[in-house]
Here is the input.
Amino acid sequence: MKRAKNLFEKICSLENISKADCIAQKGKSTQKGVINHNKNREQNQQIIRDLLITKSYNTSPYSVFKIKDPKERSISSLPYFPDRIVHHAIMLQLETILVSTFTADTYSCIKRRGIHLAASNLKKALTDVTETTYCLKLDIRKFYPSVNTEVLKQLLRRKIKDAELLWLLDNIIDSSKGLPIGSYTSQYFANFYLTYFDHWLKETMRVKYYFRYSDDMVILSNDKAFLHSLLHEIKGYLKTNLDLTIKNNYQVFPVEARGIDFVGYVFKHTHVLVRKSIKKNYARKMSKGCNDQSKAAYNGWLKHCNSRNLIRKITEQAA
Here is the structure.
């Protein structure tokens, strides 16, 4: 496998840092950190360049807060200057290289490969009714916090040869136990951490229908016994190679009996419905007077499933 090199110099260029700064500011122009940074923007960009070239950069302390989405999660946030700019500067050069290692079955946090492409491709797979009789659904226990940072660093060395870039990536990776949810680089590192597992499933285990959104996985087959056997193999691979554990809520079930709850929808061979919790939230907001922005967001969800009756019913109730 060819390894990438000579990237650090590109990351450190003022042109790359300036571009990263512009991208990082999108939709965040009113944030205090952005406003303060823009008072001395060019000077700060030069400071970032100097910190990187002299290897004086160290990841700042994280601010941690909790959200419910829908379950409670801890979100870690870094200062806009210099950290978020540095992360975007890195990914401007590294994103294409990391994404090139991903299989076509990976959807989370990748441009043009989000929820609706995952839903569309799963829907297409289910048209092959005879080969998608059963579903294995699983996810990883506390995935982001459980990522073994030493394993991650070794995996990155399989793809990257640039010693200076590896120093910078190590600096970011070592700044937290596991991967901090909310950090811009974490979403790429998380997908990369599982990419060789994805290849193992597709190329060694010969799994035809596989879909992964972050650590939420769906595998389809016409053989229930095969899926139970595969589950055992998956547990072994993840524990041995990645120090990860499958949640105990894994399931092997016939698709027609219950449908596949994945990326906000419930999939069956004949139709797709929106997840019950999303339907309830939509009905509740409509009854209270949903604004146009929220209504458009929900309609964006609903247009990808069989929702004509649901929209009519909720609209009538809200009238």
DSSP finds 15 helices and nine strands in the chain.
